[in-house]
Amino acid sequence: MGVSVASRWETVQRALGDRLVPLAWANLIANIAIAITGGAVRLTGSGLGCPTWPKCTDESYLPHSALGVHGAIEFGNRMLTYVLVVIAVACWLAARNRASEHSRAVRLATIIALGIPAQAVLGGITVLTDLNPWIVGLHLLVSMAIVGVCVVLLDHLRGPSREGVSQGTGRLAWFLFVVGWVVLYLGTVVTGSGPHSGDLESRRTGLDPQVMSHVHAWAVYVLVALTVGLLWTAQRTSNRVLFRAVAVLLGVELLQGTIGFWQYFTDLPEVLVAFHMLGAGLTSAALTSVVLATRRR
């Protein structure tokens, strides 16, 4: 029987190894999706639907009827973490099975797999601190970082052959990457200063949301200008891989900017805020792709 179990386990590992790329894609999609569902928890005012952590209440890990729909929404988002764990572990096992071909994939898959329980703990801290806006912002940024690692994994597995770039172009790409992350960070500050706190009793940062929106917007202007500059450089040097990556980033930025202005002038409707969070995940992915496109393969 022991031999049979071992044989079946080897069969499972081989099957997973054959699906490494789809599992890497699943990792990326799932980590973007849970950031959106986490935003839905906040947008529906369900951030403290389960008022404590790791239990839902002091007496139970499960929500009860007294918590109403908010408890169900918050608990449902917690359960999605286990879906991410299953995907991440499956991807890690697949990478282990292909370690002779993709040794770096094992390290990247490990980072993703460990990042998810770390995110769960950070999510618990947000509940225990009554949705402190700075911790909520950090919670989102860690998700965006995991999204970036997922893109690196996919690039390692299926990235196109490409030429290197000049030192100046490489520095511009990295500077764009840093500014992009400043934009993402300022987006969390704007969110932490405005409505949609996740619970009526949760405090805000105390910063003026209108002022922070303008600061965020000016950072976006700088990011778009840098993106246009890098796009022109890629066109001038006939670097098709870099040109495509930067063009995608510019498209995401323009879409994000449109949604951002739309939600600003319409008093932040929940649907637009949710789409803006999707755009944040796509922005993180696109920023990472641009930097990767500058590296020789």
Quick summary of this structure?
With 297 residues, the protein is mainly α. Helices cover 77% and strands 0% of the residues.
Can you characterise this structure?
The chain has helices at residues 2-18, 20-43, 68-97, 103-128, 133-158, 167-193, 209-236, 240-265, 270-293. With 297 residues, the chain is mainly alpha-helical. The termini are far apart. Helices cover 77% and strands 0% of the residues. The protein has two domains: 1-159, no CATH class; 163-297.
List the helices and strands and how they pair.
Elements: H1 2-18, H2 20-43, H3 68-97, H4 103-128, H5 133-158, H6 167-193, H7 209-236, H8 240-265, H9 270-293
Helix pairs in contact: 1-3, 2-3, 2-5, 2-9, 3-4, 4-5, 5-6, 5-9, 6-7, 6-9, 7-8, 8-9
Shape: flat
Tell me, rounded to a whole number, the average pLDDT: 90
What is the CA-atom radius of gyration, in angstroms?
A: 21 Å
Weakly predicted, low-confidence segments = none
Annotation, overall tally of beta strands: 0
Tally of domains: 2
Profile the largest sheet: none
What order do the helices and strands follow?
A: HHHHHHHHH
How many DSSP H or I helices?
A: 9
Q: Beta-strand percentage?
A: under 5%
The residue fraction in helices comes out at: over 70%
Distance between the termini: 46 Å
Structural class: mainly alpha
